[in-house]
Amino acid sequence: MAAQTQLTRRKALAIGVLCLACGVGPVFGALGVGPFHLSPGVPVWMGVAAGSAFLLAAVLLFADAAAGGTNPDGTLLADASPIARFIQSAAGLGIVLVMGSMATWIAFGRGARHFSMTITLPFMTYRPANPDLPGRIAFGFGAILIWAIVIFGTVAAIKKHLARLRAT
């Protein structure tokens, strides 16, 4: 079995800063600030959402750092404050909500989507003439899966927080 490592405060801060740097560009670009620009037909909120997923990851990691790091399984240390636990859960839920919203718009939103698809087997390559429908179907399955995760994850997180409050 491979050794499990703990996310230390320093590692959480470093990765959080990296996530922050990755999220600022798409948000500013979507808002028309900076060198990044959206493709035609893509709504501004999609660019903001894409960057926000990284910004929320930074918030989650900064909460981990403020709590002193995490256990090998990703949970906060036993002495972490309830506020850090709430921020970690809320940021994680926010990431999944943003990703679900983006996948839902790609799968079910109005307008054209442009996908490319190539299936390569030995001695054969297949490229469908119109890969848009399979692309939308794939994102549709992804969106449904993400929303199921949101529902079950939210219920589990609420139960966990309520149990923790009852124990104190």
Q: What fraction of residues sit in β-strands?
A: under 5%
Outline type = globular
Q: How do the SSEs run, as a string of H and E?
A: HHHEEH
Main sheet characteristics: 2 strands, antiparallel
Q: Portion of residues in helices? A: 55-70%
Count of extended strands: 2
Low-confidence stretches: none
Mean pLDDT: 88
Order of strands, main sheet, comes to: 1-2
Termini, distance in Å?
36 Å
Output the number of helix runs.
4
SS content category:
mainly alpha
Could you name the key traits of this structure?
globular; 168 residues; mainly alpha; two-stranded antiparallel sheet
Q: What can you see in these coordinates?
A:
The structure is a single chain. The protein is mainly α. It has one domain (9-167). Helices cover 64% and strands 4% of the residues. The protein is built from 4 helices and 2 strands, in the order αααββα. It has helices spanning 9-30, 44-66, 82-108, 132-167, and strands spanning 119-121, 124-126. It has a two-stranded antiparallel ribbon. Helix 1 packs antiparallel against helix 2 (44-66). It is globular and about 60 Å long.
